């Protein structure tokens, strides 16, 4: 089944060229079906690139998904045309009276910024508080995972001395958990962050189900017992060259970054990288949509209630 997005969203043409089934709003309006309503709070600077990455992963599901894009505030963007934001993005005030099946909060380039210095921190907290009563399941990605752990569990910011960048091996810890169904015992996933997520710290400070970890990168995937909050510390949505672009940017800014781990052939930045995590990313999002959203959400979102949610079998 397709994802439903605005007719002229730039991502539509890209996804159609990749033979991904995308349905326009005008066509979807003729169908009698209850699609899942998923809201994406896009905190990344290059919003068109990021929205395309997430829409690509949401498309690989038998479920029809109606996607809406949310911006954190109305400040001008240096990396996204204002016309694009005005046309395709909503302000929180326009959606806060509604309920959604799923919410995705993306990463943000704020790894070295203290939470209290983030200009939209209070607004982000308002959105996360709102989600408790209006969203079936929220997926926090990279920096958003750290922000979510702070706002939901009051965990302090833990910053690494060296940026974690590359593609790392991960092991699963509960093969019967619904989020891990179909996963290999070991899989690859990219990281690009300064945040530190050690399994020991999360186990001591929270009752989260820690589902996948890496010896080098720490916790990759964790979830609350009711699956209403899912934390992904890496970037399963990244395209093959995303880490490369970040590395070139950091080199250009004189940051002297390490070469991303396990990314370039022969560890040579002059060689073209290839994605080794694509199948895992699609499976993770498919499982989240099915088991954390579709299997939990009420048919009528107006009857949203805590009683709808159950622990994993």
TrEMBL record:
Database matches in Gene3D superfamilies: 3.40.50.880
Protein localization: Cytoplasm
Acyltransferase keyword on record: yes
Keywords, ordered alphabetically: Acyltransferase, Amino-acid biosynthesis, Cytoplasm, Methionine biosynthesis, Transferase
EC number assigned by the record: 2.3.1.46
UniProt-annotated catalytic positions: 142, 235, 237
UniProt KW Acyltransferase keyword: yes
Annotated site residues (Important for acyl-CoA specificity) in this chain: 111
GO terms, molecular function: homoserine O-succinyltransferase activity
Similarity section: Belongs to the MetA family.
Name the record gives this protein: Homoserine O-succinyltransferase
Organism: Vibrio ulleungensis
Phylogenetic classification of the source organism: Bacteria, Pseudomonadati, Pseudomonadota, Gammaproteobacteria, Vibrionales
Gene name for this UniProt entry: metA
